[in-house]
Write a structure and sequence with these properties.
It is a single chain. By secondary structure, this protein is of the alpha+beta class. It has a domain of 215 residues: HIT-like (HIT family, subunit A, 2-Layer Sandwich), CATH 3.30.428.10. Helix content is 28%, strand content 21%. Strand 5 and strand 6 form a beta hairpin. The protein binds zinc ion (ZN) (2 copies). The site of one zinc ion has 5 residues, from loops.
Length: 343
């Protein structure tokens, strides 16, 4: 064995050793689809398919069960990482992305080229109240949650190497939440996800903004659920999920950080009304609430919005095998059913 070969092997062994502990991004050679392999996620409470029945790590008094907070909202006095907060931002104990990786370049993972999943994966605990999900908070609570999410979105988007910040609330086990305590997840990604890329192509196609057009069309086709103070909540054309609804501003903006205080307050009112209607109509369904924004530092004609995806049925072979969704509730029926129970 020549010195070059043995050196290359040593480097490869070292890289392999380093990849054992942190998540990596692999791209499918068939579809180009990125996949994050994060072995540590299987160890999380309620992860790996087992229900978590122990003490809630997000409840006040159990702060020592989480990593030290990044920041908290509402704690007037008392030490950091103690009780007295209204919201707490913490690193995810079982991250899909990590800040410190051995190198920003490609590495070898199980013999294939991979990239370190460099970024941040955080949890915003939305309330000290274990039993008060977003759709049952008062308007001030929802507005405060949106303010905290906007703040962290801005902080992470301006961090080095971050290309996309994804914010979501998974409500209910069937929607992927491993803990019941109301919380949002925030991902700072080193790449632009395929969903954002395909949306960017639509926004920059030169045919006008598809969200602005959807708002106009929803008004005339009976798909508008509620429209007030510059915000529109509507059931989209071609919804993937029954009772899927989107919330967008009538003024076209690429990032949630482009919203001022008053806009955020009125967004909170409409979001709360929409989530409340879903919860009344469908008896507190599990749902995913996902914020869709432009890639960090880009505009590209993007119109930021929230997508609310009720999870009434499971994704099955057809959806996973084709990318085509079958939905049994037309948008107009969903919108009129939601309108009937608007608070
Ligand atoms: Zn709790
Ligand atoms: Zn628009």
């Amino acid at each position: 064995m020549g010195p070059d070969v043995s050196r290359a092997r040593r480097v490869e062994d070292r890289r392999r050793e380093l990849t054992d502990d942190f998540p990596v991004i692999l791209h499918s050679p068939l579809t180009g689809q990125p996949v994050i392999v994060a072995e540590a996620r299987a160890k999380r409470p309620g992860g790996g398919g087992t229900a978590w029945e122990g003490m809630c790590p997000f409840c006040p008094g159990n702060e020592a069960m989480t990593p030290p907070e990044v920041w908290a909202v509402g704690r007037e006095d008392g030490p950091e990482n103690g009780p007295g907060w209204r919201m707490r931002l913490i690193p995810n104990l079982y991250p899909a992305l990590v800040e410190t990786v051995p190198a920003p370049v490609s590495i070898v993972h199980e013999g294939e080229e991979a990239f370190p999943a460099r970024g941040r994966h955080e949890v915003l605990i939305l309330t000290p109240d274990h039993h008060r999900p977003l759709h049952r908070m008062d308007p001030e609570g929802v507005a405060e949650a949106l303010r905290a999410l906007r703040r962290r979105y801005g902080e992470l988007c301006s961090s080095e190497g971050v290309r996309q910040v994804v914010v979501m609330v998974n409500q209910g086990r069937e929607a992927g939440a491993s803990l019941d305590h109301p919380h949002a997840q925030i991902f700072a990604l080193p790449l632009v996800p395929p969903f954002t890329q395909s949306r960017m192509e639509r926004f920059s196609s030169g045919e006008g903004c598809p969200i602005c057009r959807e708002i106009e069309r929803a008004r005339v086709t009976g798909r508008m659920v509620v429209e007030e103070d510059g915000w529109a909540a509507f059931c989209p054309t071609a919804p993937r999920f029954s009772y899927e609804a989107w919330l967008a501003g009538r003024r076209h903006k690429p990032h949630i950080t482009d919203c001022g205080e008053e806009e955020l307050d009125s967004m909170a009112v409409v979001l709360r009304r929409l989530l409340g209607a879903l919860s009344r109509r469908l008896s507190e369904p599990p749902y995913n609430l996902v914020l869709q924004c432009a890639p960090c530092g880009q505009e590209g004609g993007f119109h930021f919005h929230w997508e609310v995806l009720p999870r009434l049925g499971r994704l099955a072979g057809f959806e996973l095998g084709t990318g085509i969704f079958i939905n049994s509730i037309p948008s107009t029926s969903a919108a009129s059913a939601l309108k009937e129970v608007l608070g």
